[in-house]
Amino acid sequence: MTEIPQQLFDEAVELNWAIYNNWKSNNGTDIWEEVIVWADKWIELLDEWPDEITEISLNGRRKDSSARACLAALAKQGSIYPIALAEKALLWLEQGRSPFHVVSDLYPLVHDTFSTGGLEVELTVPEPLRKAIYQMDYDSEAVDPVYGWAGVRGEEAGGWLREEMQKHLTNALTEIKSDQL
Question: Model-level pTM?
Answer without folding.
Answer: 0.72
